[in-house]
Amino acid sequence: MLQESQLFSLLDKVLKQTAFIRKGEEAVYFCPFCFHRKKKLEVNVRTQEWHCWICNSAGKSIRSFFYKLKVREQYFEELYKIVGKHWVKSEDREEQKLNLSLPEEFIPLWKSSKSFDYGHSMSYLKDRGITMDDILRYNIGYCERGDYEKRVLIPSYDKGGDINFFAARAFHEGNTYKYILPSWPKDIIGFELFINWYEPITLVEGTFDAIAVRNNAIPLFGTTMSDKLKEKIILSGVERVNLLLDSDEAGTKGAIRIYDFLQSFDIDVHLIRLEDKDPSVLGFEAVTEIIEKSKPYSFSDIIKAKLSI
Q: Contact at 8 Å (CB) between 35 and 99?
């Protein structure tokens, strides 16, 4: 019982939580990987097996759990003092699969409703140029309660059709935070399900920009390319990339970073400016015409852009 008690204390310290103890050997915590609002992560201090019932992250030893958490070396040393190193197994370092899911309060907008929030969500999307076809294609929805209350949610899916990220946008302009993103790694490819890697791709900051562009548009959920996206572009042999980031300082700096990276691989880069206009305001046809008429950024163009910030 002393070892179990010591492991409970160590886990509490590492996770900065107090466990709910079940059956004298199972510690139940809030999951540090999917951040579900209920305690769904179970760690058995007798077998050392651990599992989250929401994101399915799992392992066969507390050591593997610590590796997944990337804890400091001192915690490994404390663990070894309690259980020794005989628990080390070959599978400890294997990457455990994490699965993101939409919040349980998510309601798809293709389901018609007479609710107040449904009406406001649809009105907001209409003003952004979003059609019912877009709603169906991207599975756009909304939440009436929970962490994403009174927000429109735009999911992103990977090539296998599994959700890999989402953006939640307030449909009331008075909200303090317009966008909320999940606490989830952004090392993903936005809208990967819809991308043809044999054609030019367009990189944009947000989901609404990508929906407005439609054809082969990838939202960055910011101004930086993920490592996974960089690798995919290089390995797929993409010949042309259109950069359609905002013209503010953050967008300009991001575009320059991306340009420098892609140019090092001899990729044809078109840096496109929309004169402070949102792609969803301009509309699909206007944005498409601007992209088609764009020219590759020259060395002097990029120098001017760098000097402007």
A: no
43, 77, 93 - which closes a domain: 93
What DSSP character marks residue 178?
S
At residue 92, the pLDDT reads: 44
pTM tops 0.70: no
**CA dihedral over 274, 280, 286, 289, signed as positive or negative:** positive
Please indicate whether residue 115 or residue 177 has the higher confidence score (pLDDT): 115
Q: Per-residue pLDDT for 273 more than 90? A: no
Q: Mention every residue, 6+ apart, whose C-beta is less than 8 A from residue 80.
A: none
User: How many CA within 13 A on the CB side of residue 144?
Assistant: 11
CATH number at residue 192: 3.40.1360.10
Q: Report how far residue 71's alpha carbon sits from residue 86's, in angstroms, rounded to the nearest whole number.
A: 20
Q: Is the domain of 217 the same as that of 309?
A: yes
